[in-house]
Structures
1.
Amino acid sequence: MTARYYAPHLSDDDSCELGGGEFHHLTRVMRAGIGDRIVLFDGRGNAAECKITGLTKICASLQILERRSEPPEVVRHVVLATAIPKADRFRWLVEKATELGVSRLIPLQTTRSVTEPGSNKLDKMRVTVIEACKQSGRDRLMTIDAVTDWKAFLSEASGIGKIFVAHPGGTPVAEAREMTQRDRAIVLTVGPEGGFTESEIEQAVAAGGRRVSLGSNILRTETAAIALAALCLLSAPFLGSGPGSAPTLNDSET
């Protein structure tokens, strides 16, 4: 796989430059040289295959050889609203959600939440999104919202799409056929380790949410979140529907 670099201001011209941290990675880590080919992506669904034509101490000059843009219709808009797991499990959740193709992640503050990441932590998670896009071949960044209160989230969620709430007493997830309907956005909601309170569940149902169960085993927050996202994004009807729509294993991971 050709090495990929994040260029949020990808030029429309036939040539461009790459500087900053991505340039450092290109030259100091990857040891790239003139004539090598790389891929730039802007995080908004656009990418370009480029050839390195020049190197200075601060930037690389690139010739754009080929462009591609992700058609809007291949994007499955899945929003993941989840309480935040402790320590590095949040980073794992962000990384895997990005690889799967989740469009937006909303960190939730609920009654039983045990952690609330600050702005610095969320900024680090946004860097994780970029790294996961580089690794997975995804050209569109997953957005991460500020931490959102449960009631504030519900007031917005019904306007986004169908809400599904992970809950042991819900409908078996395999029976929730509308989770795989591609024609509308869906919102997947996962509570903290102690679960949602009954009041929060009632509020979600009142907002149009549907409770879905992932089985009898007790799952950690990040496991439930990724399981729900995978069930929605890797459903058989949508595999291979467009560039970046179906993740594949790297050769080194098989």
2.
Amino acid sequence: MPVVRLIAENVGPFDKLDVDFSDGAGGPHLGPHILAGVNGSGKSTLLRTIAWVLSWLGHGFPREEWRHFLRGPESRALLHVAPTDEVPYVDAATADTENNWVVGLREWVQSFHLIAEPDSGKSHHGEDFRWARFGREDSLNKDLPFTVAAYAPARALSYVNTAVEMDALRHPSHNSLGFESAIQNGAIQRWLVDLFSRKALAKERGQEFGSYEQSLNRFQEALRLVCGDENVRIDVELRPSLEPRLYFRGRALNFSQLADGVRTTVGWLADFMMRQDQTRRTNGEGAEEPGILLLDEVDIYLHPRWQRILLPAIRRALPNVQIIASSHSPFVISSCEGARVHVLSLDEHGVAHAAPPQDAPFGESVTATLKDIFGVESRFDAETEQDLKVWDNLKRAEAVGSLTPAERKQLEKLSHKLSKRSEELKLIVDTTVRLPAGLLNGLESQTIGKPARPRASKKKRPGVEAPGRSRRGVKLA
């Protein structure tokens, strides 16, 4: 059920927001869609705007906090949704609570000409927000026929002392759009224990157990992809109590013992796949469940090596899910072929803007990504970058002969300081570096337009030429 367009007004730092999540021609694109931009440019707000439009009272969306991101009744947003092999429709939300809110929202949606029948649809409302669906006659339902969930960095996954604390998930959408509170720790461990137990019991009784085994295998394969380790697996300890454990790098770890990066990533992955599994069992759908996955700061706590493999791994593990994630990492942004990057920026008035999407810089260097996407021109730290600017200005003055004695002393001191900082800087500032003999030969050859002459390793006798060559290195007939 991919989103192809988000339009919003008066939300957070945005006066107006129009983001294209399509394939460029209005069709669905599963992404990953990566949101990039400076702090305060609205990456998290954009994700929460999507969640706001999709939310229901039981979805756990942080409604009280969200009020502070809106600017009164004129705050509104819509999602143009294009299900595969189904008629597109629009979901919309508004902060307007007046009696004519449905009419106002319908007219606003109709102005964009996104769907054929904008007058049809259903609506519902909560205490402070209103929602409507246009273009489909089916009712709005908190138990959606696909999985939608939103996650922010959270160490929610942890050791559960007893099976009593493992409460089953109420329904697939319960608290699914809670971001920081979305991960249901007890329910995840109950889900894993149940899968192992039901598989074992069904197998012992000669009953069908393939569906439980399939769910376990899908989750374990996703873990292996995300962790980049073929030996990762989940098992359940019998004593002292039933307890899921992750076998990782030769150790059996309970969920409190996991490193922060593993704990956070495994947490949202397990939560999302648990919701997928429950949706599938409820609706009787196939293994590759559709869905929308919103990830805020997907790279946090992760080593750059993991950042490079995360999005391609998620894309393979969840092949039918639309992924929209925010990131500050050039390793994440350049990691996944076919990804789309949405760069957000702030103008001089503090208003945020979204640039048209661009293809991810797959195959480009991290340095190029830093420059093109993040606007970071230098590959050095900020202090070194400033020192190099001063050094460069002094060298320019030296080249035109306008360097004062004081500036010359400053240049020598700065050159010495930079050359001691790293070998790379030494090559930049050390003007006395001698070029290798082979490189000198090549430069000499290019200058005279003739093949380079090998430098003799021993002194020749006067008047004796190399066989077949004259004194100028021209081959004799």
3.
Amino acid sequence: MTDTTGTDSPKKGRLICIGTGIRYSEQITIVSKTYLQRADIVFGVMQNSLIDDWIMDNNPNYINMQKFYGQGKSRHQTYIEMVDAILVEVRAGKDVCCALYGHPGMYACIAHLAIGRAKEEGFAAKMEPGISAEDCLFADLGLDPGYFGCQSFEATHLLFYKHTVDPGTVLILWQISLAGEHTLKQFETTQKNLQLTVEFLSQWYDLEYEVIIYEAAVLPEDTPRIERIPLKDLPNAELEMHSTLVILPKEQAEFNQEMLTKFGITEADLGN
């Protein structure tokens, strides 16, 4: 396999961060699987023990990094410890693979931190993409993000920063089960935080407006969770760490008449 890390570093150690996809063993790319199998050592964070077993079948030198998590322990500290462990092996001159479920660069800071530090120290490092939860979401819900447009936020980020929601687009809120959880020490939010989330969203959507709780299928025999509920019922919904909130467009986006005039076209020219 051709090495495409794009570095002239003389140091021997190398880091490749790969995505294994969401569905167990079925969505990893050929190139990522090759890196996984050929690595001297593999570090991983998976969402299911069966996937851990599958990785070990492909490379017995596997370190499951779930052990770094702890109740009441800051996830920020956990991620730093994971990166430290990865870099120890890179510095030892090993060909290191970091395997993360889904896409390694989406809602996963470990790969970004590890690659950044490896490059700073003069080692070859790169990321290989994987099929993400967002890819599965578009397929399972039959959505084309280019048709309506799409706004995608981590739920707490949307709540804590001055973003404006456009109800004429698809709105995707990741990690809705952690909405408003800012300590990085808990693995679930509270009913109060979810009620505040509903109040925030009610600026653009009626309380009776239908929203979707989505969870991608992980195992071959699983089916995706696509549960439609009124927005007002979100605080009482059963949410998992991998639950995502999807809100379909409430209305058609308003035409920008100024730009239509500049382009010399009318609404009729656009087939509406």
